[in-house]
Write a structure and sequence with these properties.
With 310 residues, the protein is of the alpha+beta class. The chain has seven helices and 19 strands. A hairpin with a 5-residue loop joins strand 2 and strand 3. Helix 1 crosses helix 3. It is elongated.
């Protein structure tokens, strides 16, 4: 009796799929091997076994790290830079426009544009504040202290045995009389003594001013003392500006200031003109029109804050 032939084990799709998986990932894999693999996959069982193995392998793979986003340098465009510059200029303009108002509101005593006000202090003294003026007062010490922040003030001082000092920036005014007027202009300050005496001091520099005299000063120096017509000094208290040989710019600033405006004089030659006339401070618009007609000037208001003069 001849021996029976050995039985061939049935094909195992999963085992064959594993072999194909390994062979296809070897460096020597060529087109001939891929064609043989394609022929093997024509059997649905083989194709299903290989697909299951591929899916299982994908689940075992560690996900690749996500690339970090590269920092992108954003260049400022010219438009953005110009907008930034314009914004800063706008802030500076607003600060320049409203800083005087904020200064006044932050002071103890103040008046609005076009307003005049008289205040009687606790020591009996009286302060007459002109339009757009501001002061701080401290009467508690052995020396009474005052500070003129803006504008113009006429002081009627009550003598009570204590000294009185008025500060104008870094300039100190010691009062030895009973009536005086202090004014802050655009580029200088002014003291007029109506009755009594006063001294103006800047460090070692000092001037004594007697009744009927005036002195102008700036942050840099004190000018010589001059005689003054006292009858013209406090005319503003009754609503009059009595200009006598005053620079045109000063007259314009006084009248425009009563409307809360700043002057922008575009005619440099006109700035040297001298004015002698009377103006009504209670009606500054009409006074400005009168001045413009006499001096052949053109006035133009801008945004309610400026007065262009040409």
């Amino acid at each position: 009796m001849s021996p029976m032939p050995a039985l061939q084990p049935p094909p195992d799709p999963e085992h064959e799929a594993l072999e194909w998986f390994a062979r296809l990932r070897q460096p020597g894999c060529d087109e001939r091997l891929r064609q043989a693999f394609a022929l093997w996959c024509q059997d649905p069982l083989n194709a299903r076994a290989y697909a299951a193995l591929e899916a299982y392998w994908q689940q075992l793979q560690v996900p690749a790290p996500r690339p970090r986003p590269r920092a992108v340098k954003v260049r400022r465009s010219r438009v953005g830079l110009m907008l930034g510059v314009l914004f800063l200029l706008l802030l500076a303009l607003l600060a320049w426009l409203y800083w005087p108002t904020l200064q006044r509101l932050g002071s103890e005593l103040h008046t609005d544009a076009g307003e005049r006000r008289s205040v009687r202090l606790a020591d009996g003294s009286t302060l007459h504040l002109d339009s757009a003026s501001a002061m701080n007062v401290d009467l508690r010490g052995r020396t009474r202290q005052m500070q003129l922040v803006q504008g113009q003030v006429y002081l009627e001082v009550m003598l009570d045995g204590r000294a009185l000092e008025v500060q104008v920036d870094d300039t100190r005014i010691q009062v030895f009389g009973t009536r005086l007027q202090i004014t802050r202009h655009g580029d200088h300050d002014e003291l007029v003594v109506i009755k009594g005496k006063a001294t103006v001091s800047q460090g070692a520099d000092q001037r004594m001013i007697n009744a009927g005299e005036r002195v102008t000063f700036s942050a840099a120096h004190i000018n010589p003392v001059e005689k003054v017509d006292i009858q013209l000094v406090d005319a503003w208290r009754s609503g009059q500006l009595k200009a006598r040989n005053l620079p045109l710019t000063e007259v314009l600033e006084r009248l425009a200031g009563y409307q809360g405006q700043r002057v922008w004089l575009l005619d440099e030659q006109a700035a040297h003109r001298r004015i002698s006339a009377d103006f009504d401070l209670d009606h500054p618009a009409q006074s400005l029109d009168k001045l413009a007609a006499e001096q052949q000037l053109r006035l133009q208001g801008v945004l309610g804050h400026w007065l262009l003069v040409r």
